[in-house]
Design goal:
Elements lengths: L3 H4 L4 H4 L16 E3 L10 H13 L13 H11 L6 E4 L1 H13 L6 E4 L5 H8 L4 E4 L19 E4 L11 H10 L5 E4 L20 E6 L12 E5 L1 H11 L9 H12 L1 H24 L3 E2 L6 E5 L5 H10 L2 E5 L9 E4 L3 H15 L1
Parallel strand pairs: 1-11, 3-4, 5-6, 6-7
Antiparallel strand pairs: 2-8, 7-8, 9-10, 10-12, 11-12
Helix pairs in contact: 3-9, 4-9, 5-6, 5-8, 10-12
Bound molecules: 4'-deoxy-4'-aminopyridoxal-5'-phosphate (PMP).
Length: about 350
């Protein structure tokens, strides 16, 4: 415990910070970890081969800094996303990309708009950069109503699919949001888009105020690598580069560049494994429905579920005793829900079987 006396050395604003709390990564044997939306499948074998190549043949270059621009990676992303390379920005995980987005665009006179229930890092960045935030309530079905975002603002940020609700917005609603806000930057955080939602990257060419943020952490099974990226028109990318080069010029190391490039080059593996997760999700939902759970319509690699007869917090603790961890948020509106990451068919079956035994 650090005392106030010791904290006198801290910058005053750091004393007030309420940092983001990441999902735990416990080291328990036979643990089934369904709490941080990681992919249950390994990355493409080409990723492993690429890292091995760096180790075997280029270890001597580790004494040299990596490419500050990560151009090879930007090229690979641009090719896969069908955009020009000048429309790509890369960072150390999309969390870092989001931090730069907040700094680059959201420090304005008006508050930014974001849903009341969304990714819990957004309010942390707002506090960090001293950005006023106006939360817009999701409707009673936990959906985003874009018409509520037609008020003066200094920017808009939405996760699509939203987290932790897993519900996706249609592209036409996103387009409506962009048209309603021609003078502020609209950020669509697509961390989970590859599991069935429509990407707004298709709109980047048309809208000069759109930033789409994606990650290799979920659909490419590379959470441990820390590679995220943004896609936007070059005038917005330039602001992100200015922020990045005022903070850390080498956010992506040589291993990460090589590995992520290999992942983007293996499109077949990517498509196949996203589909596997989607299929597992649909089966998991059927299993949970049979046990009486209500599950929100998910387009992500996780589901958000509630049970009318069982307290969600208690269920989370009971599951934990059985070596299964899921995410529980003790927050208004969602404290009767569990966020459960989709695992492999076997892992999901273990979850369903364990719950079934608990309900007997
Ligand atoms: N956006 C959302 C909505 C997320 O849930 C996450 C994962 N916690 C991220 C961004 C950040 O992912 P990463 O930093 O691993 O790219």
């Amino acid at each position: 415990m650090i005392t106030d006396q010791q904290k006198r050395f801290w910058s005053p604003e750091v004393r007030e910070l309420e940092p983001y709390i990441p999902g735990e990564q416990p080291k328990i044997q036979n643990l089934l970890k369904l709490n941080t939306n990681e992919n249950p499948y390994p990355p493409s074998p080409r990723v492993v081969a690429a890292v091995q190549t760096v180790l075997d043949h280029q270890a001597d270059v580790l004494r040299l800094y990596p490419d500050p621009d990560a151009s090879a990676l930007k090229q690979a992303i641009a090719k896969q996303q069908h955009v020009d390379v000048t429309c790509v920005f890369v960072g150390n995980g999309s969390d870092e990309v989001l931090a730069h987005i907040f700094k680059a665009f959201f420090i304005q006179d008006q508050p930014i708009l974001t849903p009341d229930i969304s990714y819990s890092f957004y309010p942390v960045y707002s506090q960090f950069f001293d950005i006023q935030t106006q939360k817009i309530a999701l409707n009673e079905r936990f959906e985003i109503d874009v018409t509520e975002y037609a008020i003066p603002n200094g920017g808009v940020i939405i996760a699509n699919p939203n987290a932790p609700t897993s519900i996706a917005l249609s592209l036409s609603h996103i387009e409506q949001l962009l048209q309603m806000n021609p003078n502020s930057v609209v950020v669509i955080d697509e961390a989970y888009v590859d599991f069935g939602a429509d990407s707004a990257v298709a709109l980047v060419e048309k809208y000069d105020n759109l930033v789409v943020c994606q990650t290799t952490s979920k659909s490419r099974s590379l959470a441990g690598l820390r590679v995220g990226y943004a896609i936007a028109q070059p005038h917005l990318i330039a602001a992100l580069e200015a922020v990045k080069n005022s903070f850390n010029s080498y956010p992506i190391d040589r291993f990460a560049i090589a590995a992520a490039v290999a992942s983007f080059e293996d499109q077949d593996y990517f498509i196949e494994h996203c589909q596997k997760v989607i299929d597992c999700r649909e089966k998991l939902v059927v299993g949970l429905n049979k046990l009486g759970f209500e599950v929100l319509p998910s387009k992500a690699n996780f589901i958000f579920a509630t049970h009318p007869q069982h307290d969600a917090g208690e269920l989370a603790s009971l599951l934990r005793e059985q070596g299964i961890i899921v995410r529980y948020f003790n927050k208004p509106r969602i404290n009767q829900y569990l966020r459960i990451t989709v695992g492999t068919a076997e892992q999901n079956q273990r979850l369903v079987d364990t719950l079934e035994l608990m309900f007997k």
